[in-house]
Write a structure and sequence with these properties.
single chain
Length: about 70
């Protein structure tokens, strides 16, 4: 991992803003997974990108829905 996950969890617990963590095994800072790893797991970068976008959409939706419900 790019950051020890236990340290990251400690920091996340101190953040007052809503936050979520999506772990991309083997991903780099650009959210890219090496081609050999993709082949080994039978995956494509496009499908991984789609899952990342779904995780972002889920987080945004869960954050915005309560606000919109209060309007």
């Amino acid at each position: 991992p790019l950051c020890p996950l236990d340290l990251l969890e400690q920091i996340r617990s101190q953040i007052k803003a809503l936050n979520a963590l999506y772990i991309l095994d083997g991903g780099d800072h650009s959210l890219r997974v090496p081609k050999k790893q993709l082949q080994a797991i039978g995956e494509t970068q496009e499908r991984i990108d789609q899952r990342i976008l779904e995780a972002i959409a889920k987080f945004v939706s869960s954050t915005v829905q309560p606000i919109l419900a209060g309007c």
